[in-house]
From TrEMBL:
Mitochondrion found in the keyword field: no
Organism: Parageobacillus galactosidasius
Record Pfam families: DapB_C (PF05173), DapB_N (PF01113)
Protein name: 4-hydroxy-tetrahydrodipicolinate reductase
Top-level taxon of the source organism: Bacteria
Active site (record annotation): 155 (proton donor/acceptor), 159 (proton donor)
Positions annotated to bind NAD(+): 10-15, 36, 99-101, 125-128
SUPFAM superfamilies associated with the record: Glyceraldehyde-3-phosphate dehydrogenase-like, C-terminal domain, NAD(P)-binding Rossmann-fold domains
Entry GO MF terms: 4-hydroxy-tetrahydrodipicolinate reductase; NAD binding; NADP binding; oxidoreductase activity, acting on CH or CH2 groups, NAD or NADP as acceptor
One GO term of the biological process aspect: diaminopimelate biosynthetic process
Gene: dapB
Binding-site positions, NADP(+): 37
Length: 266
């Protein structure tokens, strides 16, 4: 198998650390460089917690891609940085695998157009965990029979974006198979603003943020005299890594942008 040269943006973050470790232990992956907010010009090996892992550090994505010419960028940063990095990567012919969430439909459309112009692959994956992909697929299946649904996503309290990328993606998949409808009583009123949550195409989404949590989601369907709950839990960030590995391998064979691993995991 040919070696895939990878740049990781956000290596010191919770997900970035796992990704560095994944690349280190995968024979056909090579950590070519990292993009970090600090330590420009330094080496990852000199950063606490990365002893023995040699990779040049860049704060400027464009300069990194120009000098390193990697095959793939794995971005695990913040919504603002992730959008910028993905766009610069595509402009330099580097295939982005974006785990960072908080992208709007317009962001995804812009990156899709750019990937098409460049004729190279890109993946935006709101969730890399296989169980989460299945949860979303099962939810889409169930929505054909249970059109009334609410999503509750629960995450650690350091998360920047709400609702989660996974919750938005779940709502998008559900709205593909059910007609738009207003749920609840037609005359319902919130006596406390936000009580009924955010809505995506009429689907309420509720975001919980608490210390101690990692990443969890329930999709609750209500029907006549019955309810169906589909739940997924990530108890650690290693749960996302098989999806990161698959995405890096797959993006090398793509010529367009894929949004969501449900298109890859059949
Ligand atoms: N797709 C998936 O399966 C998953 C996605 N995520 C997403 O991944 C992203 C990162 O999550 P965490 O690791 O928990 O966050 P974190 O806050 O632990 O890490 C983010 C890292 O990005 C770095 N960063 C910020 N701006 C930067 C810039 N301009 N250049 C380089 N580095 C920069 C920060 O210094 C930090 O080290 C979030 O958007 C989160 O929603 C998280 C878990 C799973
Ligand atoms: O920030 C996180 O932690 C996670 N973010 C992703 C999301 O927004 O859906 C994926 C997972 O839920 C963990």
């Amino acid at each position: 198998m040919e070696t895939i040269r990878i740049v990781i943006a956000g290596p010191r973050g919770r997900m970035g650390r796992e990704a560095v470790s994944l690349v280190q232990k995968t024979d056909h992956f090579q950590l070519a460089a990292v993009i970090d907010r600090k330590n420009d010009g330094g080496n990852l090996a000199d950063v606490e917690g990365f002893s023995g892992i040699h990779a040049p550090i860049y704060t400027d994505a464009a300069r990194c891609f120009e000098e390193i010419k990697p095959d793939v960028l794995i971005d695990l940063t913040t919504p603002e940085a992730g959008k910028k990095h993905a766009e610069i990567a595509l402009r330099y012919g580097v295939r982005p695998v974006v785990g960072t969430t908080g992208f709007t439909d317009e962001d995804i459309q812009r990156l899709t157009t750019l990937a098409e112009e460049k004729g190279i692959g890109a993946i935006i994956a709101p969730n890399f965990a296989i169980g989460a992909i299945l949860m979303m697929k099962f939810a889409q299946m169930a929505a054909k029979y249970f059109p009334d649904v609410e999503i509750i996503e629960l995450h650690h309290d350091q998360k920047l974006d709400a609702p989660s990328g996974t919750a938005v993606k779940t709502a998008q998949l559900i709205s593909m198979v059910r007609p738009t409808k207003k749920q609840g009583h037609p005359d319902e009123k919130e006596t406390l603003a936000g009580a009924r949550g955010a809505t995506y195409d009429g689907i309420p989404i509720h975001s919980v943020r608490l210390p101690g949590l990692i990443a969890h989601q329930e999709v609750i369907f209500g029907g006549n005299g019955q309810a169906l709950t589909i739940r997924h839990d990530s108890f650690n960030r290693a749960s996302f890594m098989s999806g990161v590995k698959l995405s890096v391998e797959t993006v090398m064979k793509l010529h367009t942008l894929v949004y969501g691993l449900e298109h890859i995991i059949e």
